[in-house]
Design goal:
This protein is mostly helical. The protein has a domain of about 120 residues. Helix 2 packs antiparallel against helix 3. The mean pLDDT is about 80.
C-alpha cells in the first residue's frame, strides 16, 4: 500500500511540474490573454474610427443645412444671425465631439502600437515566424520545437514568476527555497 501512495504522489508531482514547466498550460493561457487584449484594442480603434466618421458626416450635413437656410433667407432678404444660431450651436457641439473622439482614437492607437511593440519583443517561431508565448517549448501553430528561453524560476508554493536571486516570493511571501507542504 505505501508503494501505491508513493507512486501516486510521484505522478501527481510530475503532473504539477509539467503544468508549471515552460511551454505548459500557463504559457498557453498567457498567450491567449495577450491575443485577446490586442483584439479588444483593435475593436476599440475600429469603433472610434466609425464614430469619428459618423460625426464628420453629421458636421457635413449641418453645414449643408446652414448653407441651404442661409441661401434661402438671403434670397428672401431677411438673413439674421439669430435664425442660424441653433444650427451653428449644433455644429460647434459636433466639432467638440470630433475633437474628443480624435483624442480617444489617438490614445487607443498609441496603446495598440505599444502592445505591438511589446509583442515584437516576444519570441517568434524559427520555423513559421508566428509570435509564440515566451515560455513555449513548441510552436502552437506548426508544432516545431523552439529554442529554450532564458530560464525563469517559479514559486513552488503559488507558481508566481520569481525575480533573479529572489529569496522570497513577491506574491505569497514564502521562502523560495522551502518545500511546499505535501
Amino acid at each position: 500500500m505505501p508503494d501505491i501512495l508513493g507512486t501516486f504522489k510521484e505522478k501527481a508531482e510530475d503532473l504539477i511540474g509539467a503544468i508549471n514547466r515552460t511551454g505548459g498550460i500557463k504559457a498557453t493561457i498567457d498567450g491567449v490573454r495577450k491575443q485577446m487584449a490586442v483584439s479588444d484594442q483593435k475593436r476599440a480603434v475600429a469603433k472610434a474610427k466609425s464614430e469619428l466618421k459618423r460625426l464628420d458626416t453629421q458636421i457635413t450635413e449641418m453645414i449643408t443645412a446652414v448653407g441651404v437656410q442661409a441661401v434661402g433667407l438671403h434670397k428672401q432678404g431677411v438673413l439674421e444671425s439669430g435664425e442660424l444660431q441653433p444650427l451653428c450651436d449644433h455644429i460647434v457641439q459636433l466639432e467638440a465631439a470630433v475633437a474628443k473622439q480624435k483624442a480617444e482614437l489617438t490614445q487607443l492607437e498609441t496603446q495598440l502600437q505599444a502592445a505591438k511593440a511589446q509583442e515584437s519583443k516576444e519570441h517568434t517561431c524559427p520555423s513559421c515566424s508566428h509570435v509564440i508565448p515566451p515560455n513555449a517549448t513548441f510552436c502552437p501553430y506548426c508544432g516545431a520545437s523552439t529554442p529554450a528561453p532564458s530560464s525563469q524560476a517559479f514559486c513552488l508554493h503559488c507558481g508566481a514568476p520569481l525575480r533573479e536571486n529572489a529569496k522570497f516570493c513577491a506574491k505569497c511571501g514564502r521562502d523560495v527555497k522551502s518545500e511546499p507542504p505535501a
